[in-house]
Design a protein that fits this description.
This protein is α+β, with helices and mostly antiparallel strands. The protein has helices at 2-15, 23-39, 47-52, 67-82, 99-102; strands spanning 118-123, 128-131, 140-144, 149-152, 160-166, 173-180, 189-193. The chain has 2 domains: 19-94, no CATH class; 102-193, SH3 type barrels (Roll). The strands form 2 sheets. Strands 6-5-4-1-7 form a 5-stranded antiparallel β-sheet, with no helix packed on it. A two-stranded antiparallel ribbon has the order 2-3. α2 (23-39) packs antiparallel against α4 (67-82). Mean pLDDT is 87; it is low at 1-23.
Length: 194
């Protein structure tokens, strides 16, 4: 029983959204939505937007989105509304634990609407390359290694899943990216939740 309590307390920071209105969830949604807008050439006027996106090549406030991107932006906005998200765009900081990897992506993940996911504590499979996008030609940006803990909490794109990985019992993200997981990969964990 004590071991179970210790495991639960150890995982709480990694497993649960934080802050009012799940601030980490809101920051994740904001970043993904605005990354899409940045890719389309949007010119950010707020300190937050300017601190995360390069505006040197922006084209204006009215940008044209592809139908794929327009659908994703609408989905993100709806999820932000459902969570009651309001971010201080006068700030210059987002508490995204995977930001160093998110900046390398060619396609941003979108959180599950409920913000929850799957956690693998002690991956027992072989190493898995993590890519910049849901495409094996997008380039490897990191890797999931045996023993890592990993989390999925974003919507899959086709057979691709965005994951974040940490060392055992750590909150620091050491790897993140898109992986093409076989269904049996989800059973290759010492412990799992979700």
């Amino acid at each position: 029983m004590r071991a179970l309590l210790l495991i639960c307390l150890t995982f709480l920071p990694f497993a649960l959204p934080s802050g009012p209105a799940h601030a980490g969830v809101c920051e994740d949604l904001w970043y993904s939505r605005n990354w899409i807008m940045d890719r389309a050439g949007y010119c950010f006027g707020t300190p937050l937007g300017q601190s995360y996106f390069d505006t040197s090549d922006c084209i204006g406030k009215n940008v044209t989105l592809t139908s794929w991107d327009a659908e994703r932006v609408a989905e993100l906005r709806e999820t932000e509304q459902d969570h009651g998200c309001t971010l201080n765009t006068q700030s210059t900081y987002l508490a995204l634990d995977d930001i160093q990897f998110r900046r390398l992506l060619v396609e941003q993940p979108i959180l599950f609407p409920e913000g929850e996911g799957f956690i693998c504590m002690g991956y027992t499979g072989s190493g898995v390359s993590l890519f910049a996008g849901p495409d094996s030609n997008s380039g490897v940006i990191s890797a999931l290694e045996p023993g890592d803990w990993y989390r999925t909490r974003h919507t899959d794109i086709g057979a691709w899943t965005y994951i974040t990985a940490t060392a055992p019992q750590s909150e620091r993200v050491k790897a993140a990216g898109w992986a093409m997981f076989a269904p049996e990969s989800y059973t290759q964990c010492l412990e799992a939740a979700g």
